Amino acid sequence: MKLLKNILISITFLTVLAGIISSCGQQEYDRVFRYYFEAELDSAYTRIRKAVEGEEEGLYRVGSKAIYQHKADSLKEIGMSEYASQENIDYAYLGLLAAKDVFEDSKNPFVSSLKELIDECHFTLENTVEGTLPGQFKPGAKDSLEISVGLAEAILEMPGLTQRIIDRECETLIHALNRYDTFLIGDFVVNVENAGFEKPGSNQVNFNRIDGWSCAGMLNNWTNTKPGTVKAGAVNLPSAPEGNCVMNIGEYSHPVWQRLNERFHSGCTYIVSFKAKINYSNPTPKGDDLETFVRSRIITFQKYDEANPDLSENNIQVIHEMSFSLGVERTMDDFISCEQYFRGSVAPALDGKRMAIQLLSHEGAYKTDGSGNKSVTSSDTWIFVDDIKIVRTTSR
Q1: What is the third-level CATH fold of 190-393?
Q2: What pTM does this model have?
Q3: Of 56, 69, 254, 357, whose CB has the highest number of CB atoms within 10 Å?
Q4: In whole angstroms, what is the distance from residue 60 CA to residue 106 CA?
């Protein structure tokens, strides 16, 4: 009898202990999943607080914040209730994720990005020729790209466009452009306007009057008022490699640059070539003779305002850059041929972005500020550059 009593007591104790363990485990499970719900709820309220409503691209449609706020508040009552089961919390958490997707779809999509790609496709179709010669595209290539363009244009006419739809169509159109590249026979010559600086062909012309090219101004503000400061520009030169004029650019100038009618193709290889030599290079104030370089950069703009282009380092992304030594002193030797070769795979994330080329002279010495940041030293060094070419190819 005593043994039976002990057995019953043990069974009762184990049953109670199992219930306690089960309850603790369930509470721990609830606590863990409540944490994820709380984190997503905080993210939702932060997203609502920072979001801006309006009619412009990238802004949320008017009234969308209030809808998202109401949904988040309703789910908060469910998920944060002290009586909420794990099923209730899971339901509220998944509801927040769905509400976030709906809210993001209420953003005015960047339709302009798809329109720009469509324009690039039309530009490509208008400026390429089908045939069997190098630089031409195999017969039938245009038909495939035209179909993709037509589908993209139809998408633009659809009501209720979301950013996800725009992103998907941009990716599809970029793939179509890359596929079109595979029909290229040999190399494709990218158009560089006024590549030899022959227009207008006058001496020491400010860059805002040279077709196709721009100069962002002076690197040092004091040079704007310094008497006799020479501006970058086109210079008549009897020994010009191409035509009669060359570019004359110095250490005091920002890079000369040109935005190209070419979008970056990550599936191709690019070859940038030009010719350069030192115009003159005076020693530094300390009497040092420094090596002179010309730097070529292929870039894209994060945002581009044609009326007021921003070439700050915060607004440009460098696809590839390379510096070429021109020696220490001016010599009577011919121009030095420079060739910059890079594969599109160096920057796959920039696929489809409009490209630009920058050219700048600098010297083989740097100055360091108090924070340890390096910058190119300024000195009275000028170089000539001419005969700029850019080739895109799938065969190398």
Answers
A1: Jelly Rolls (2.60.120)
A2: 0.66
A3: 357
A4: 6
